[in-house]
Structures are given as C-alpha cells and as structure tokens.
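Hi R.,

Here's the chain you asked about this morning:
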Amino acid sequence: MFSHQAFANELGGLPYELIGDFERKMVTAYGVRRDDVEGYSGMAKRSVFIIDRQGMIRWTWERSREEPLPDYDAVIAEAKRIAVA
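And here is the predicted structure, written out as tokens:
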C-alpha cells in the first residue's frame, strides 16, 4: 500500500485507486487467499479481477502452472471492452 502512489506515478497515473488488504478480507472474499506458504498466511494468489462501474466482477484470471502470468494484452483488451460497455 505504501508503494501504490509511486507505482501509479510510474504508469503516468491511474483512473482508480489501488487498494491494500492488511486484514485479508478481500483475498478471503474473492477466493484467492493462500495459507500454504509458511510465514505468509493469507497472502493472495496472483490474480486479476476486472470490476465494472456497478461493482460487478466481469472478468478474472488466476495463476496456474500452465499460465503463471496473465496475458497482459488480453487483460488490457478486456478492461477496455468492459469500460465502454
């Protein structure tokens, strides 16, 4: 959370806020909580959620062995598609 502003600035600004989840409420609610890494209980699985203006989750990606990183072009394309919907 402390580095969010610097990260957003590096990208030239973002039209939304970046969030922190110190209490691990969101990772639990979104079903991406990991408790299998010693010393890091409650950390999030690498994941992407695109949420529309009404607060509905419209697209998700979760890390897998086959796809350890998201297809960033696909994420951006999907975000743009949802933004104009």
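One quick note: The radius of gyration is 14 Å.

Cheers,
M.
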